[in-house]
Amino acid sequence: MKRPKLKKASKRLTCHKRYKIQKKIREHHRKVRKEAKKRGRKKPKKDPGVPSAAPFKEELLREAEQRKQRLEELKQKQKLNRQKEHEKKRKLEAKKNAAKVKEKAEGKESSGKSKAKTNKLLDKNSKKSFCRELKKVIEASDVVLEVLDARDPMGCRCPQLEQAVTCSGGDKKLLLVLNKIDLVPKENLEKWLHYLKKEFPTVAFKSATLMKDRTMQEQFKKRRARVDLSRTTECFGSKCLLKLLQQHGKTQNKAIQVGVVGFPNVGKSSIINSLKGVRACNVGLARGVTKSMQIVHIDKQTKMLDSPSIIADPSNSALALALRSIIDTEESDSADVLEGVDAILNHCSKQQVMMHYSIPDFKNTEEFLTLLAQKRGMLKKGGVPDIENIAKLLLCDWTGAKISYHSQPPVSQRPPPYLTEDKIAEMQECWNLKNLEEENTTTVQALKYPSPASSIIFQSPGMANGTIEENKVIEEASEWENLETGKKGEEEEEEEDFTESEDDQDDAEEEEKDVKEETKVQVTRKAKLGKQQTSPTNSEKQIAESEHSNSLSLSLDKTADEDDAYDFNTDYV
């Protein structure tokens, strides 16, 4: 009996075999190279172009350019047709799949459940859910913190929210928190604090920019050794706010819940993080990061409730919508973004914008965006400035904490109609206002501020209207569903269009080939004729000029369809 093999057979070859294989490979490569040499490499023929001696060279070139333009237009049309066809195919496939799914589905109950699931998925990031969560926060909280951007505090105030809190009854209080105070000149900040404290108690605040994450504490320690983060992580006004809230809790003799409310990118979550000292809530440059109510325990007496941002009403001005609405810059239309940028530039001083971006004089927003794109190197294929992306980036800069701009408070103090003297007195009760003023002065003196010359002067659009009630919100998800259901009756029409579009595409391809052949023939003929005619007489010249003028007049009057045919009037002998 043979002994069983315990080990696998080795894949190693003898040197003789290995060298033999290498030799064969070399021979094969040599053979391939020889065959390639015999065949010879066919270089692409260069376009000789129109010779300089040829008469009417400029006209020939102009005609060639026109033909190129026509070809490009044809290609674009074909592209659009193809896209339409693909869309129709997808729709048809989707409908077929949907029909199959319906056949498989058992009974009406299963179909009802599937619809409910789709509604939930659509409703997750919808405006209605935002309103629902926001209302929960307002109802659950004993103190509501309305966060305002110090650069435009009036534009960040929502009259609907203030009215809901003041008219809710009970011991519910409203506090204003001026965030991002380091981006505003010192004098302007003091003016705003003086203006706002007459209506509601206000706290000057500067939230920490870099925070320790719960899960990433080790990495943070390593990073801290390299970079000095003392200035960036420092928070101002947190002690003042915590003292106020703790004092209010003691007067109430219970643990209080503090709701943090405001428009997008105002710094709601960052305020909670800076009070906690740890990154408890998600923070980002994108608008609408917080999508549901989040409870953060600061101590035994205080709970912070993070809320989704207030939804700006569509009746607001273009500027208010650009800065305060929940726009996803990646998915939003370019027209909306450009309109927002235009509104921002119209409400700023032109010279200061030019100085800030170090850009020459511009006539309109498009020119400004092109200059900015060229300066920052945001270019598309062929060196074309990417206007859409630069506009989105500019919007992010203005809502984020990059650009320093400031707006002046109103000259006369005119409180809104819902804020009567009794209401103001009621809101200012139970707060130690003298202590608050002292704390605010200490925070104002501790910070470094930009100079008034470097900060851009901005005209505030005033209070921004917001929708808090769920019923008033126009839901996008429901519209999408209606569109889907409405399309069921259009199946036959789409199928007919699909068959017609195939014929159109074939015709377009044939036209393109004809145009290409015509260009080649015409250029070669005219070049040859130019070479043959070296010394024409005066009479011949006159005839040629008259014929040429007639041909030009004819070519100008032609339509696009007549242009495709070759015109023999341009040739002369």
TrEMBL record:
Biased composition (Acidic residues): 491-512
Domain of life: Eukaryota
GO cellular component, as recorded: chromosome; midbody; nuclear body; nucleolus
Pfam families reported in the protein's UniProt record: GN3L_Grn1, MMR_HSR1
Domain named CP-type G: residues: 131-313
InterPro entries according to UniProt: G_CP_dom, Gnl3_N_dom, GTP-bd, GTP-bd_ortho_bundle_sf, P-loop_NTPase, TRAFAC_YlqF/YawG_RiboMat
The UniProt record lists the keyword Nucleotide-binding: yes
Protein name, UniProt field: Guanine nucleotide-binding protein-like 3
Organism expressing this protein natively: Aquila chrysaetos chrysaetos
Taxonomic classification: Eukaryota, Metazoa, Chordata, Craniata, Vertebrata
Underlying gene: GNL3
